[in-house]
Amino acid sequence: MKRRSTQLKSEQEPESRVENSIPCPVPGCDSKGHLSGKFDFHSAAEACPCYHHLTPEDCKSIYQKRIKLSADVDRLEASFGDKKELRQRPLQKSQSTYRSQVDRLRKTKTKSSTSESTRDEPSRDREGNLLGLTSEFDLNLFRQAQSQFAEAKQEQENHDDQSAKLIEFGTFEIESWYRSPYPDEYAKLRKIFICEFCLKYMRSAAILRRHMAKCVWRHPPGDEIYRKNNINFFEVDGKKSKVYCQNLCLLARLFLDHKTLYYEVEPFLFYVMTEYDSKGCHIVGYFSKVSVSARVTLLDANESVSLKEKHSLMNYNLSCILTLPHQMKKGFGRMLIDFSYNLSKIENRIGSPEKPLSDLGLISYRSYWTKVLMHYLADFEGKDISIKGTRAVASASDGAASFL
Length: 404
Fold this sequence. Notes:
alpha+beta, five-stranded antiparallel beta sheet, 15% strand
């Protein structure tokens, strides 16, 4: 994440990385072949055949053996039926013979082309020579495991390359943490350009510039319910501003691993925190919660919900919370949490956030409650103190106890 000082030329960048566009770092390697045997090129040392003292043909041979072995195992497992009964059966003659062959093969070490005194040591450029250290059977198993790991890692990298890595948001270029379900034509781009006021997403900087020249939005669509200095809070109804709230959820999914709702925003109220300057209200973060009318409708429609679950649902004061990465470590997260509890006070409700929280959310809540309790203890002038009394002051029946 970095602040832009000059205009970025992202429209000139390729939309996706060519598979062998990054050269292999191993000296003398031309990036051809792949340790998995499944791909034609590689860009990392751990997937380099040369690094492992192999050729691309060797890797393909190992891959074919691995596929054949996997198919044989699947076929045998399908023929066995119940595995519990299989454990109780005595070994068949063919199984005993195979076990004896494996035991014999494992006692025979592979022949090394070098003596023990001149054996190659592991280095950054090459893997250590494994010949002569173990049996050929175990070495083949190890090579197959290496091949399987290299394949899984490359497929994960290919999958990640199909999702946006960066977003341009206002004067910031931010690296995404997770994938967000943007439409396919946007998800495959290396960078998505987002209007920081209306949250519309675009394909290029040129489109964003044209949009900004016409965009009349300078703050979130909703009622401004709080203002102090240059900090504002807007209450946005997901039912009235559906597209804006959907775009906000898609943006949040780039930084929240557990967020699952993106398009069904009608039951929620979104409280968007902004920082005001001469250009407009810039989003800092937000939290959302289910509106009271939506809670009543949901509970009336679902008769199977228990009394305890009804009580919990009616008293959740927060469903999702996010501080944008470029605004983190400034105290805004604690302010969002404090604002959610102050809203509960106004509504005469005692509530807590929905669980489970994300890792960052849990850290923020623990930090918040630690500060609240320390202030309470520092200002306490009575003789007797209890958690119950502390909860009453904090206006949350299970807040402090849940996070501390």
